[in-house]
């Protein structure tokens, strides 16, 4: 028999915040629940500049924290864009350690030097792009990027090379909707009958207009061999108000879902909850609406140091999204992209976390922990490496059905290695010898 405390703890995943939490923000203390619920209000009042952070928070923001954020914008590869919903959920009494602040509002003090083996396009999406806006890596699946605009900009974004606008450190070639290029994508798909699965990402599908959702969805579903479409959006996690009040947008999604069913095809949503703090009653209301429409939702999280790399947090997140009728799908090792070394964890952490999470809930509601291999090897289970030099943080992988005969390497963050290993990484010749030795052992 368990005590009351244990019962409460075990049922924590069913409790969702439902207070007027945004009223704790000085600039929004008079905002009504009705105003906060409106998707237009959320977009209009999104935080886009550091100066807005100070103006909205007033005396709640310590001067040292403001300066830390200000300096962070000189380092980060991503601009600021945060919905009021997420901004108000940040613990402004301790922003440095808050998992939401870490994901969306970088501070200079958190940054670490980039890993020597980082790549701007870590997953080689551009190399595997036969036509603009399309990546074709797996035989029967493609990634379609119709826009580079998002409702929030995540500090850990794998596509920071094209998303989030130019910053003080990076010039980017971002793009919005372009029907001509979309049509080129459709033509490519028509010419490749092996392709059955299209992921519509970007950017974020939340930023496509209802007309664009219908145009893209209908054109894809009319291609005879396309069987599955996935709309990828972080929106449910960071902007649930759009689901609840933007009827035109949600009607467009329901339309292509129904259109697909008429052809015997699947249209689903893939979303992106990374930690339990993102989940509130608004999340539940949005998911109730989606579930009642018969649309399947799956979740893809990114493993992030100080955000979700603790067993209790990952178990809670897994149970929470399952309770919301979202199927936990993937947890990714963090990609080796610039400006993100402080987010990354070791491969060992990923392996041990999956061991801990597996068995805490039903198997179909347990995410698979994967490493999306640098160089375009695709997603591999975290324990499926060919060789792992844990001392020096070097793992070597094969992807036999994606790129036969090739070997791929992934590297643990240097800051989590022993002092001796860190010193070895500081010597370019020793570094190369270590990598060559690991590859030799993997062969």
Automatic annotation (TrEMBL):
InterPro entries: Aldolase_TIM, Lys_aminomutase/Glu_NH3_mut, rSAM, rSAM_sf. It comes from the Bacteria. The keyword Iron-sulfur applies. The keyword 4Fe-4S applies. The modification N6-(pyridoxal phosphate)lysine is found at residue 379. Keywords: 4Fe-4S, Iron, Iron-sulfur, Metal-binding, Pyridoxal phosphate, S-adenosyl-L-methionine. Its cofactor is [4Fe-4S] cluster; pyridoxal 5'-phosphate. One of its GO terms (molecular function) is catalytic activity. PANTHER family: L-LYSINE 2,3-AMINOMUTASE AQ_1632-RELATED, LYSINE 2,3-AMINOMUTASE-RELATED. Belongs to the radical SAM superfamily. KamA family. NCBIfam families: KamA family radical SAM protein. This is Lysine 2,3-aminomutase. It comes from Halobacteriovorax marinus.
């Amino acid at each position: 028999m368990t005590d009351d405390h244990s019962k409460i703890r075990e049922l924590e995943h069913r409790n969702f915040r439902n207070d007027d939490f945004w009223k704790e923000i000085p600039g929004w203390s008079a905002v009504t629940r009705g105003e906060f619920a409106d998707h237009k209000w959320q977009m209009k009042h999104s935080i886009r500049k550091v100066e807005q952070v100070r103006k909205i928070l007033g005396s709640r923001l310590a001067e040292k924290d403001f300066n830390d954020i200000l300096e962070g914008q000189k380092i980060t590869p991503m601009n600021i864009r945060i919905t009021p919903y997420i901004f108000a959920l940040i613990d402004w009494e301790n922003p440095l350690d808050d998992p939401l602040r870490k994901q969306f509002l970088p501070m200079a003090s958190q940054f670490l030097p980039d890993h020597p083996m980082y790549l701007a396009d870590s997953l080689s999406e551009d190399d595997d792009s036969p036509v603009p806006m399309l990546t074709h890596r797996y035989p029967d699946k493609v990634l379609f990027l119709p826009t580079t605009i998002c409702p929030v900009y995540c500090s850990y974004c794998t596509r920071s090379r094209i998303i989030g606008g130019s910053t003080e450190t990076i010039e980017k070639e971002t793009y919005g909707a372009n029907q001509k290029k979309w049509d080129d994508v459709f033509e490519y798909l028509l010419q490749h009958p092996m392709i059955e699965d299209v992921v519509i990402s970007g950017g974020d599908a939340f930023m496509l207009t209802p007309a664009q959702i219908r145009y893209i969805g209908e054109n894809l579903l009319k291609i005879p061999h396309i069987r599955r479409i996935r709309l990828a959006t972080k929106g449910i996690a960071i902007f649930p108000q759009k689901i609840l009040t933007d009827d035109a947008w949600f009607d467009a999604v329901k339309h292509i879902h129904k259109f697909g069913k008429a052809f015997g095809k699947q249209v689903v949503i893939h979303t992106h909850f990374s930690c339990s703090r993102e989940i509130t009653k608004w999340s539940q209301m949005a998911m109730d609406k989606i579930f009642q429409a018969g649309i399947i939702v799956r979740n893809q999280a990114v493993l992030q140091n100080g955000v979700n790399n603790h067993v209790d947090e990952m178990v809670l997140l897994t149970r929470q999204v399952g309770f919301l009728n979202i199927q936990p799908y993937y947890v990714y090792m963090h990609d080796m992209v610039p400006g993100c070394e402080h987010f990354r964890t070791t491969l060992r952490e990923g392996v041990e976390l999956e061991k801990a999470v597996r068995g805490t809930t039903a198997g179909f509601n347990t995410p698979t922990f994967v490493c999306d291999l640098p160089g375009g090897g695709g997603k591999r289970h975290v324990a499926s490496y060919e060789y792992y030099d844990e001392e020096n943080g070097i793992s070597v992988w094969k992807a036999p059905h994606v790129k036969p005969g090739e070997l791929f390497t992934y590297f643990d963050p240097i800051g989590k290695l022993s002092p001796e290993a860190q010193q070895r990484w500081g010597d370019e010749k020793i570094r190369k010898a270590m990598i060559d030795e690991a590859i030799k052992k993997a062969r």
